[in-house]
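dumping this here before i forget
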Amino acid sequence: MLTTLTLRGFRNLADQSWSPVEGTNLVFGLNGSGKSSLLESVYLAATTRSFRTTRLEECGQLEGPGFHVAADVGGDERVHIEVGQDSAGKRRAVNGKSGPIGEHLAALPLVSWTHRDLEIFLGPPVVRRRMLDRGMLVERPASLGLISEYRRALGAKRAALDHQTSVLGEWNRLLARAGAALVDRRARWVERLERSLETVIEDSELDLGKVELRYRPSPKDALAGEEGMFEALEKLTSSEIRRGIALAGPHRDDLEILWRHGSVGRMASAGERKLLGLALVVAQARLVAERGVAPLFLIDDLDAELDLGRVDEIWKVLGEAPQLIAASSRKDVANRLEATAKWNLDQGILTRS
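structure:
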Protein backbone atom coordinates (compact mmCIF):
# COMPACT_ATOMS: atom_id res chain seq x y z
CA MET A 1 0.00 0.00 0.00
CA LEU A 2 1.17 3.51 -0.83
CA THR A 3 1.42 5.42 2.43
CA THR A 4 3.20 8.63 1.39
CA LEU A 5 4.01 10.25 -1.94
CA THR A 6 6.56 13.07 -1.95
CA LEU A 7 6.92 15.37 -4.95
CA ARG A 8 9.50 17.94 -5.95
CA GLY A 9 9.55 19.79 -9.26
CA PHE A 10 7.07 17.44 -10.94
CA ARG A 11 5.04 18.96 -13.80
CA ASN A 12 2.39 21.43 -12.60
CA LEU A 13 2.14 19.96 -9.10
CA ALA A 14 3.31 21.87 -6.05
CA ASP A 15 6.11 20.41 -3.96
CA GLN A 16 4.31 18.43 -1.28
CA SER A 17 3.82 15.15 0.56
CA TRP A 18 0.52 13.31 0.22
CA SER A 19 -0.77 10.37 2.22
CA PRO A 20 -3.54 8.47 0.41
CA VAL A 21 -5.64 6.22 2.61
CA GLU A 22 -6.28 2.52 2.45
CA GLY A 23 -9.44 1.90 0.42
CA THR A 24 -10.83 4.29 -2.20
CA ASN A 25 -9.27 7.69 -2.84
CA LEU A 26 -11.28 9.91 -5.18
CA VAL A 27 -9.41 12.96 -6.49
CA PHE A 28 -11.46 15.81 -7.94
CA GLY A 29 -10.03 18.66 -9.96
CA LEU A 30 -10.92 20.79 -12.94
CA ASN A 31 -9.25 20.12 -16.28
CA GLY A 32 -5.62 21.18 -16.13
CA SER A 33 -5.45 21.00 -12.34
CA GLY A 34 -2.88 18.18 -12.39
CA LYS A 35 -4.92 15.00 -11.87
CA SER A 36 -3.16 13.07 -14.62
CA SER A 37 0.18 14.39 -13.38
CA LEU A 38 -0.59 13.11 -9.89
CA LEU A 39 -1.36 9.61 -11.15
CA GLU A 40 1.65 9.77 -13.45
CA SER A 41 3.90 10.52 -10.49
CA VAL A 42 2.63 7.45 -8.63
CA TYR A 43 3.06 5.33 -11.75
CA LEU A 44 6.57 6.68 -12.24
CA ALA A 45 7.58 5.97 -8.66
CA ALA A 46 6.35 2.39 -8.95
CA THR A 47 7.55 1.50 -12.46
CA THR A 48 10.36 4.05 -13.14
CA ARG A 49 8.45 4.97 -16.33
CA SER A 50 5.84 7.53 -17.34
CA PHE A 51 2.58 6.60 -19.07
CA ARG A 52 2.61 9.97 -20.88
CA THR A 53 6.11 10.32 -22.30
CA THR A 54 9.31 8.38 -22.98
CA ARG A 55 11.36 11.52 -22.26
CA LEU A 56 11.47 11.79 -18.48
CA GLU A 57 12.95 15.27 -18.61
CA GLU A 58 9.50 16.42 -19.80
CA CYS A 59 8.15 15.53 -16.34
CA GLY A 60 10.15 18.34 -14.74
CA GLN A 61 8.93 21.89 -14.46
CA LEU A 62 10.05 24.45 -17.03
CA GLU A 63 13.48 25.88 -16.28
CA GLY A 64 13.61 23.78 -13.11
CA PRO A 65 16.65 21.78 -11.96
CA GLY A 66 14.80 18.48 -12.42
CA PHE A 67 12.26 16.46 -10.50
CA HIS A 68 12.16 13.93 -7.71
CA VAL A 69 9.36 11.52 -6.83
CA ALA A 70 9.48 9.29 -3.75
CA ALA A 71 7.01 6.82 -2.30
CA ASP A 72 6.81 5.08 1.04
CA VAL A 73 5.19 1.67 0.78
CA GLY A 74 3.63 -0.05 3.75
CA GLY A 75 3.31 -3.78 4.36
CA ASP A 76 5.21 -6.41 6.27
CA GLU A 77 8.32 -4.34 5.67
CA ARG A 78 8.44 -0.62 4.95
CA VAL A 79 10.04 0.23 1.60
CA HIS A 80 11.13 3.62 0.28
CA ILE A 81 11.33 3.97 -3.51
CA GLU A 82 12.36 7.02 -5.50
CA VAL A 83 12.89 8.16 -9.07
CA GLY A 84 14.47 11.43 -10.18
CA GLN A 85 15.83 13.23 -13.22
CA ASP A 86 18.22 16.18 -13.37
CA SER A 87 21.24 17.37 -15.35
CA ALA A 88 23.15 14.28 -14.23
CA GLY A 89 20.50 11.98 -15.71
CA LYS A 90 17.94 9.55 -14.36
CA ARG A 91 18.32 7.88 -11.00
CA ARG A 92 16.23 5.41 -9.06
CA ALA A 93 16.64 3.74 -5.69
CA VAL A 94 15.03 1.31 -3.29
CA ASN A 95 15.77 2.09 0.36
CA GLY A 96 18.54 4.43 -0.78
CA LYS A 97 20.28 1.90 -3.03
CA SER A 98 20.27 1.46 -6.80
CA GLY A 99 19.53 -2.25 -7.12
CA PRO A 100 18.02 -4.52 -9.77
CA ILE A 101 15.02 -3.09 -11.62
CA GLY A 102 13.01 -6.17 -10.63
CA GLU A 103 13.38 -5.21 -6.98
CA HIS A 104 12.00 -1.77 -7.75
CA LEU A 105 9.02 -3.14 -9.70
CA ALA A 106 8.16 -5.51 -6.87
CA ALA A 107 7.99 -2.76 -4.25
CA LEU A 108 4.67 -1.23 -5.34
CA PRO A 109 2.77 -3.40 -7.86
CA LEU A 110 -0.03 -1.53 -9.57
CA VAL A 111 -2.65 -1.82 -12.27
CA SER A 112 -3.79 1.25 -14.14
CA TRP A 113 -6.07 2.77 -16.75
CA THR A 114 -5.51 6.06 -18.55
CA HIS A 115 -6.96 7.51 -21.73
CA ARG A 116 -3.97 6.11 -23.64
CA ASP A 117 -4.99 2.58 -22.72
CA LEU A 118 -7.89 2.85 -25.17
CA GLU A 119 -5.22 2.08 -27.78
CA ILE A 120 -5.43 -1.51 -26.53
CA PHE A 121 -8.62 -1.76 -28.56
CA LEU A 122 -7.91 0.72 -31.35
CA GLY A 123 -4.13 0.80 -31.74
CA PRO A 124 -1.42 -1.37 -33.32
CA PRO A 125 -0.28 -4.78 -31.97
CA VAL A 126 2.65 -3.27 -30.07
CA VAL A 127 0.19 -1.70 -27.61
CA ARG A 128 -1.38 -5.06 -26.81
CA ARG A 129 2.04 -6.70 -26.46
CA ARG A 130 2.95 -4.07 -23.90
CA MET A 131 -0.27 -4.79 -22.02
CA LEU A 132 0.60 -8.50 -21.90
CA ASP A 133 4.12 -7.92 -20.68
CA ARG A 134 3.07 -5.24 -18.19
CA GLY A 135 0.53 -7.66 -16.74
CA MET A 136 3.12 -10.42 -16.41
CA LEU A 137 5.57 -8.06 -14.75
CA VAL A 138 3.05 -6.88 -12.17
CA GLU A 139 2.25 -10.46 -11.27
CA ARG A 140 5.82 -11.76 -11.53
CA PRO A 141 8.55 -9.08 -11.69
CA ALA A 142 11.03 -11.91 -12.44
CA SER A 143 9.44 -12.09 -15.92
CA LEU A 144 11.59 -9.07 -16.74
CA GLY A 145 14.57 -11.41 -17.10
CA LEU A 146 12.75 -13.44 -19.72
CA ILE A 147 11.72 -10.35 -21.68
CA SER A 148 15.24 -8.93 -21.49
CA GLU A 149 16.75 -12.20 -22.70
CA TYR A 150 14.53 -12.16 -25.77
CA ARG A 151 15.32 -8.52 -26.50
CA ARG A 152 19.05 -9.27 -26.38
CA ALA A 153 18.61 -12.20 -28.77
CA LEU A 154 16.53 -10.06 -31.13
CA GLY A 155 19.12 -7.29 -31.00
CA ALA A 156 21.87 -9.76 -31.91
CA LYS A 157 19.89 -11.05 -34.88
CA ARG A 158 19.08 -7.55 -36.09
CA ALA A 159 22.76 -6.65 -35.90
CA ALA A 160 23.57 -9.73 -38.00
CA LEU A 161 20.97 -8.70 -40.57
CA ASP A 162 22.39 -5.15 -40.65
CA HIS A 163 25.76 -6.68 -41.57
CA GLN A 164 24.05 -8.80 -44.25
CA THR A 165 25.14 -12.06 -42.64
CA SER A 166 24.28 -14.95 -44.95
CA VAL A 167 23.87 -17.55 -42.19
CA LEU A 168 21.38 -16.85 -39.40
CA GLY A 169 21.21 -20.28 -37.75
CA GLU A 170 23.10 -19.26 -34.61
CA TRP A 171 20.95 -16.19 -34.11
CA ASN A 172 17.73 -18.07 -34.87
CA ARG A 173 18.69 -20.62 -32.21
CA LEU A 174 19.13 -17.88 -29.61
CA LEU A 175 15.90 -16.24 -30.67
CA ALA A 176 13.97 -19.53 -30.60
CA ARG A 177 15.22 -20.45 -27.13
CA ALA A 178 14.28 -17.11 -25.56
CA GLY A 179 11.24 -16.56 -27.75
CA ALA A 180 9.60 -19.93 -27.08
CA ALA A 181 9.81 -19.35 -23.34
CA LEU A 182 8.31 -15.86 -23.70
CA VAL A 183 5.50 -17.10 -25.97
CA ASP A 184 4.65 -19.85 -23.49
CA ARG A 185 4.51 -17.35 -20.62
CA ARG A 186 2.34 -14.96 -22.63
CA ALA A 187 -0.05 -17.72 -23.74
CA ARG A 188 -0.60 -18.94 -20.18
CA TRP A 189 -1.12 -15.37 -19.01
CA VAL A 190 -3.78 -14.74 -21.66
CA GLU A 191 -5.66 -17.94 -20.74
CA ARG A 192 -5.75 -16.97 -17.09
CA LEU A 193 -6.64 -13.35 -17.87
CA GLU A 194 -9.62 -14.47 -19.98
CA ARG A 195 -10.94 -16.66 -17.17
CA SER A 196 -10.45 -13.87 -14.65
CA LEU A 197 -12.23 -11.38 -16.91
CA GLU A 198 -15.16 -13.77 -17.26
CA THR A 199 -15.59 -13.94 -13.49
CA VAL A 200 -15.31 -10.15 -13.14
CA ILE A 201 -18.16 -9.67 -15.61
CA GLU A 202 -20.24 -12.45 -14.04
CA ASP A 203 -19.75 -11.03 -10.53
CA SER A 204 -20.71 -7.50 -11.55
CA GLU A 205 -23.69 -5.63 -12.95
CA LEU A 206 -21.77 -4.53 -16.05
CA ASP A 207 -23.89 -6.63 -18.45
CA LEU A 208 -21.09 -6.86 -21.00
CA GLY A 209 -21.50 -10.48 -22.03
CA LYS A 210 -18.68 -12.73 -23.16
CA VAL A 211 -15.27 -11.34 -24.14
CA GLU A 212 -12.74 -13.57 -25.90
CA LEU A 213 -8.99 -13.11 -25.77
CA ARG A 214 -7.10 -14.85 -28.58
CA TYR A 215 -3.33 -14.85 -28.44
CA ARG A 216 -1.65 -14.77 -31.86
CA PRO A 217 2.01 -15.78 -31.48
CA SER A 218 4.64 -15.16 -34.13
CA PRO A 219 5.51 -17.45 -35.78
CA LYS A 220 2.37 -19.59 -35.54
CA ASP A 221 4.51 -22.62 -34.60
CA ALA A 222 6.01 -20.82 -31.60
CA LEU A 223 3.72 -22.65 -29.16
CA ALA A 224 5.26 -25.94 -30.32
CA GLY A 225 8.35 -25.06 -28.31
CA GLU A 226 11.92 -24.13 -29.13
CA GLU A 227 12.37 -26.60 -31.99
CA GLY A 228 9.10 -25.69 -33.66
CA MET A 229 9.96 -22.01 -33.45
CA PHE A 230 13.51 -22.59 -34.69
CA GLU A 231 12.30 -24.47 -37.76
CA ALA A 232 9.79 -21.73 -38.56
CA LEU A 233 12.48 -19.06 -38.27
CA GLU A 234 14.88 -20.99 -40.47
CA LYS A 235 12.29 -21.10 -43.26
CA LEU A 236 12.24 -17.31 -43.29
CA THR A 237 16.01 -16.88 -43.60
CA SER A 238 16.18 -15.93 -47.28
CA SER A 239 13.30 -13.46 -46.94
CA GLU A 240 14.82 -11.87 -43.83
CA ILE A 241 18.22 -11.47 -45.46
CA ARG A 242 16.63 -9.94 -48.56
CA ARG A 243 14.53 -7.47 -46.54
CA GLY A 244 17.02 -6.91 -43.72
CA ILE A 245 14.48 -7.35 -40.89
CA ALA A 246 13.42 -10.06 -38.45
CA LEU A 247 10.06 -11.15 -39.84
CA ALA A 248 8.92 -13.39 -36.99
CA GLY A 249 9.21 -13.68 -33.24
CA PRO A 250 7.36 -12.51 -30.13
CA HIS A 251 8.14 -8.91 -31.11
CA ARG A 252 5.40 -9.42 -33.73
CA ASP A 253 2.81 -11.15 -31.51
CA ASP A 254 -0.72 -9.84 -31.27
CA LEU A 255 -3.78 -10.27 -29.05
CA GLU A 256 -7.31 -10.27 -30.45
CA ILE A 257 -9.99 -8.94 -28.11
CA LEU A 258 -13.35 -10.12 -29.44
CA TRP A 259 -16.80 -9.06 -28.31
CA ARG A 260 -20.16 -9.75 -29.90
CA HIS A 261 -18.49 -11.79 -32.66
CA GLY A 262 -16.18 -8.99 -33.71
CA SER A 263 -13.28 -6.88 -32.52
CA VAL A 264 -13.96 -4.55 -29.62
CA GLY A 265 -12.58 -1.64 -31.63
CA ARG A 266 -15.21 -2.16 -34.32
CA MET A 267 -18.21 -3.38 -32.31
CA ALA A 268 -18.11 -1.38 -29.07
CA SER A 269 -19.01 2.23 -28.38
CA ALA A 270 -16.59 4.53 -26.55
CA GLY A 271 -18.39 3.88 -23.27
CA GLU A 272 -18.42 0.12 -23.78
CA ARG A 273 -14.69 0.15 -24.58
CA LYS A 274 -14.07 2.07 -21.36
CA LEU A 275 -16.05 -0.46 -19.30
CA LEU A 276 -14.27 -3.38 -20.95
CA GLY A 277 -10.92 -1.75 -20.28
CA LEU A 278 -11.68 -1.18 -16.61
CA ALA A 279 -12.97 -4.77 -16.31
CA LEU A 280 -9.62 -5.92 -17.74
CA VAL A 281 -7.82 -3.91 -15.06
CA VAL A 282 -9.81 -5.63 -12.31
CA ALA A 283 -9.26 -9.04 -13.93
CA GLN A 284 -5.53 -8.43 -14.00
CA ALA A 285 -5.54 -7.28 -10.38
CA ARG A 286 -7.28 -10.47 -9.29
CA LEU A 287 -4.54 -12.54 -10.89
CA VAL A 288 -1.92 -10.54 -9.02
CA ALA A 289 -3.86 -10.98 -5.77
CA GLU A 290 -3.77 -14.76 -6.27
CA ARG A 291 -0.01 -14.48 -5.73
CA GLY A 292 -0.59 -12.89 -2.35
CA VAL A 293 0.10 -9.34 -3.55
CA ALA A 294 -2.50 -6.56 -3.36
CA PRO A 295 -1.87 -4.14 -6.25
CA LEU A 296 -2.63 -0.44 -6.17
CA PHE A 297 -5.32 0.67 -8.65
CA LEU A 298 -4.75 3.90 -10.62
CA ILE A 299 -7.71 5.12 -12.69
CA ASP A 300 -7.47 8.41 -14.57
CA ASP A 301 -10.57 10.19 -15.93
CA LEU A 302 -12.87 7.72 -14.19
CA ASP A 303 -16.06 9.10 -15.69
CA ALA A 304 -14.89 9.86 -19.25
CA GLU A 305 -17.24 8.35 -21.87
CA LEU A 306 -19.55 7.05 -19.11
CA ASP A 307 -23.00 8.17 -18.01
CA LEU A 308 -23.73 8.32 -14.30
CA GLY A 309 -25.38 4.90 -14.23
CA ARG A 310 -22.33 3.28 -15.75
CA VAL A 311 -20.06 5.19 -13.35
CA ASP A 312 -22.03 3.73 -10.44
CA GLU A 313 -21.69 0.20 -11.87
CA ILE A 314 -17.94 0.33 -12.43
CA TRP A 315 -17.34 2.06 -9.07
CA LYS A 316 -18.85 -0.96 -7.33
CA VAL A 317 -16.40 -3.23 -9.16
CA LEU A 318 -13.40 -1.00 -8.48
CA GLY A 319 -14.39 -0.84 -4.84
CA GLU A 320 -12.85 -4.28 -4.28
CA ALA A 321 -9.39 -2.72 -4.57
CA PRO A 322 -7.41 -2.69 -1.31
CA GLN A 323 -6.22 0.75 -2.40
CA LEU A 324 -7.58 2.80 -5.29
CA ILE A 325 -6.67 6.26 -6.55
CA ALA A 326 -9.19 7.51 -9.12
CA ALA A 327 -9.51 10.95 -10.66
CA SER A 328 -12.55 12.84 -11.95
CA SER A 329 -13.17 16.33 -13.30
CA ARG A 330 -16.94 16.19 -12.77
CA LYS A 331 -18.26 17.64 -9.53
CA ASP A 332 -21.50 15.66 -9.81
CA VAL A 333 -19.48 12.43 -9.93
CA ALA A 334 -17.28 13.46 -7.00
CA ASN A 335 -20.36 14.26 -4.92
CA ARG A 336 -22.25 11.15 -6.00
CA LEU A 337 -19.73 8.42 -5.25
CA GLU A 338 -18.92 7.03 -1.82
CA ALA A 339 -15.19 6.94 -1.11
CA THR A 340 -12.95 6.29 1.86
CA ALA A 341 -11.38 9.69 1.24
CA LYS A 342 -12.08 12.50 -1.21
CA TRP A 343 -9.38 14.93 -2.26
CA ASN A 344 -9.49 18.26 -4.02
CA LEU A 345 -6.68 19.21 -6.39
CA ASP A 346 -6.45 22.92 -7.07
CA GLN A 347 -3.46 24.80 -8.51
CA GLY A 348 -1.32 21.72 -7.99
CA ILE A 349 -2.12 21.36 -4.28
CA LEU A 350 -4.00 18.42 -2.75
CA THR A 351 -6.32 18.90 0.19
CA ARG A 352 -8.76 16.49 1.76
CA SER A 353 -12.41 17.35 1.22
